[in-house]
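Subject: complex prediction, re-run

Hi both,

The earlier run crashed halfway through, so I resubmitted it with identical inputs.
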Amino acid sequence: MTTESSTTSVWPDPGGLLQPRERSRVGELIVKARSRQVTIGSSQATYRWDLSRLDRVVSFHAPDMILTVETGLTLNAVKDIVEAEKLWLPLDTPGGGDLSLAEYLAGDDSLSWLSHRYGSARDWIVGLTALDDQGREVTSGARVVRNASGYQLAPLYIGARDGLGPMVEVSFRLLPLPVPATIVSLKADNPDQLVVIWQQSCRISHPSGRGEPWEALRLEFVNGRWRLDGMTRFPPEDVATWKGTADVDSNETIVVAKIPAREGQEKALKSDIQIQVLPTQIPELLTSLHSLDVELTCYPAAGIIRIGRLNEIQERSPLESLLAAVAEKGGRIRPMTEDLPVKLPAPESLSADIVLSKRVKQILDPDGIFGPLPVEQW
Amino acid sequence: MPIPPSLIKKLRRIVGRKQVETGPAELLVYESDGLRLHTARPGCVVYPASTDEVSQLVKVCCQAGVPFVARGAGTGLSGGAICDGGVIIQLSRMNRVLAVHPDDRYAVVQPGVTNEYLNLQTRGHGLEFAPDPSSGVSCTIGGNVAEDAGGPHTLKYGVTHNHVLGQTVVFPDGETATLGGPFPVSTGPSFSTFLIGTEGTIAITTEIIVRLVPVAPAVVTMLAIYSKVADATDAVSGILTAGVLPAALEMIDHLCIQAVEAHLKAGFPTDAAAVLIIELDGEETLMKREAEIVARVCRGQGTAAFYTAETDEERLRLWQGRKHAAGALGKITQAFYTNDGVVPRSRLTDIFQAIYRIGDKYGLRIGNMCHAGDGVIHPQILFDSDDPQGPGRAMDCSRDILLACLEMGGSITGEHGVGVEKRGYIDQMYSAVDLAHMIRLRDGFNPGGCLNPGKIFPNNAKDGETGSAASIPPGAGE
Amino acid sequence: MSGYQFFSPEEYRLLQECVHCGLCLGSCPTYMVNGREADSPRGRLSLMKYLDEDSAADTGGAYHHIDLCLGCLACQTACPSGVRYSQLLEKTRSYQRREVQPLGWSQRLLLRWFTERRRLGLITALVRLVQRTGLDRLVRSLRLLPPTLRFQLAGLPKVPNHAFSRAREPQLPAVAPDDQHQGAVALFTGCVMDHWYGEVHAATARILRWNGFDVALPEGQTCCGALHVHAGLEKEAEHLLARNRDVFMNVDAQALVVDAAGCGAQLRTSLWPDGDGLPVVDVFEWLATHITRPPRYKLTEKISYDAPCHLHHAQSITEEPYRLLELACEQLTPLPEAEMCCGSAGLYSLVHGNISRQVLARKIDYIRFVNPAVLVTGNPGCQLQLQAGLREAGIKASVRHAIQVLDNAYRRDEDYRYAFELAEDSGQL
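This time it finished cleanly. Structure:
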């Protein structure tokens, strides 16, 4: 259930969404929540935020290559704004770009086929405004590319699921929109051939054998076929040679297009589990997963594999033992949905980052006004 | 306040007698870092060799209520590495590269490793640590982490927090934590990333996992020479808006050119008003097009001459001239003072007008070199150290420049950090509520206030929320 | 403000050229091994200022750090302001020895004995005897001597039967076709080089003659005094310089060629205070511009060059050795941190054995990593130190002067061997 926040005397039922119409209302709601002793913020709080009405572009002067917006804007809206000025925000999300920045940043589902090269959301945020537990706006960072003043709050707030307070304004640094590039899409019967292409391409483009020719890169197993999707600034004739002798279905596989090819990302599989390992562990893991016949999306150079449609698999125990082996070797496994049909290996202990996040929570929100901090899942 | 002998005894027991220095000569050299205008003599210096020793050291210091600060090479420029009467925990002995994993592109290093040494160990694998502060031959990765260091090439590659994957830290109570990990990317709340740039006020970093990036297979370095500073600064905007992201885009003005050419001889024309160093890197074929765009923009912007470095030697000479320009000022002045204000990229021309105007107002000569592409300025304010008013005038002049940066929507520091130097201006940049929020965090992790007191925040800053005073011993860091 | 104790106003101004940027730290071998600011160039300059301004200062502590300086001058190369560190260091040390702490008797004795021809002859005879009878191994294994000395003994070359200059005519003619004669040069023979490393002088003379130079070996020359200056014995050094000045004043040659980096650095700055005498040149520098008959054949061994500080930093001769070695070697493999001191630094390795060995250890690590067959340098002290270090570490590489490597490449040419009556394989490498 949602409510119009200007009807100040009436609060929605517990579990409802608060949809403030203006920035100033966010703070007022926090003050009110405090006085009523209800929690407001994270998924386990009494009320949750929907900041989609805060959709102002606060400042955007293209030559500065900085965009400051309210967090009600969607990621796709932001991309439209900057691409119109021939700029680029190299972030994507497997969930599609139609969620608001506030949700996107609170959940930080920002790994994508760009991540091996362009990192995650926290690499592009230079300034952040959030609300503190008294309902006051606190800002850190600035609207410039470089800034070493004071503490940067963004790394603590991103992914904290609104448990430290809602983020209402964010400043991104931007890049020039890349030159026309090649979009690659290759199909194969097994992952090995595609892994070879990935590895060969790095070697060919770089004397040391460790180049990074891909702007974006993804391996997928969907509908019984393996495919490699990638974007690169190399011309198609160069890319054609990367295939080497690999036996892949190259029908209509290489096209010239402009980066970014957003539609490529949105097709990504909805995932149930995210596995994080080192890039060198990826080939072996893909081979193992191939034999299990699970649908997956892999960002090989980033060391990420996301598995989806788990409810469709027949036998669970091979996957469970594989996940246990991954965890044994130091890999990290993160559930992406609730009610997983498979059992995940229990982590030995919470990571230090999460323990410290909880300590940050105690310091910044001692009364727990923003609800519990549901970050265990990281 | 001298350090109690009982504490000295405890420190010696932890690290060994020889690794604690208390003699006047030994302490004298720790009076300042790269910024000489702020000096404070420590009470003693200790040289730990491991995370465990650091943990024990901070514990006994906290118990004794004696302030302490971690220090790397002391090349910082904001007085961040000084500690009045306290204990300096000097990390230079922790200078080993513990592991290099070329195929997974990361390395594990101790904080006392210099940027140069790390790259020496990784370049054989075709990889490097991207942040490249100008003092990279001497400055340490631990210092990079504390200040979130940048450098010329961060324009394309990002700053330290984009290149640190994890770290081991020691909190003031002696507790240690291993944050992040070796994975190439991560999401979610990151205490490790938060710590980067906190100037050692929350924890001491004792081990770092750094990302390594492939050394670009090809590099083109260009020099554009201008007879008007405004033409040069306009060209900077021109290049970026033309869709090219150079690896580095640097500017040096007339006075700094004089200093460089007096001894280093990088090959900058001494009659130029300003030069731009533009470096592109990447794949050779892809760079050609970008180089043409740069040349076109520079030529269109009233450049007097435009060169491309033909050899590696020429290229290195240009960079040596740029990176060592501040050090070279010793040739033309007894003393200078610099800051690292930031403006939005489009305001570069305006800030340079302001800098020269402010210099005239104070009757001081100001030379400039800057990371133009990032909007970071480094005005070098020359002054007479024999004149008792000299340092004060230079600092006033610097303050006016920083305030001008703020007026244009910038920041008071791009890469040197606030330290003791700029803590008086930080309230111009952030509101009292903003600062109180940050101080809450600091005091939450550093409750006794013994770790690195008197840095970043004004001395009288209070935690507005809880009403408890920010616990800074009187006189600390003055 | 000007100096109080020992710096002149000009020198005090030089001191102020240090802007405290710290770019020198990463180049300083002592700072790299112990991480102490007081043992960094920036720290030492601060201490010099402190000592100069305040005679009541706690001098012992401060002078200890001045003592620990190797004098490698890598900081001078690193310094963007061009601070003349060596001048300030020498001035401070000279004041220290004169007014504060006279040099220890053992160092004084060493300097006196090693640099005086006749006494050095006696020592050499003794070392020769010990080496020939195999006693040196016994001495080393019995641990009668302090460890530093034992270590150094291991690095000694096999001492030849005669000092180089004793067995020669004072004028050696060019060995080249008449139309390729290039005039005359003088060769500086010095003290330890002459007695212990005569083979280097011999190679230098051959190569110069092969390239059309008459080589003069003026009699009466003596030690260059470099070690005395480093130890703060200004007067003794001046005395030796005066004797050399007398010898070379009237020599008719184009240049005084020096093949020991330490001697070259000293003579270049101090032999002719007015700068108007016989030009002092390093052998690499001279050959780089005057070589007319490069070796016909190249050596195939893996060879790495470790730059002597007094060549690279004190004389800024950085490229020439590589250019010459490239003429002689097929596999010239760069050594990381080749321009960092090996820890020898004259008497330093004896006096501050501990630190000297730590500095050396870093070097040895790199050598083990690169694993050359021959390690090349250009100064007797470095040669001794590196050889001792390699022997101790069990690394097979031999240590040679770059000139010996060049000579060995020439030796592959029959004409060269015939001209100088040499065997093809000298066993040198």
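The first strand of chain C starts at residue 171 and ends at 172.

- K.
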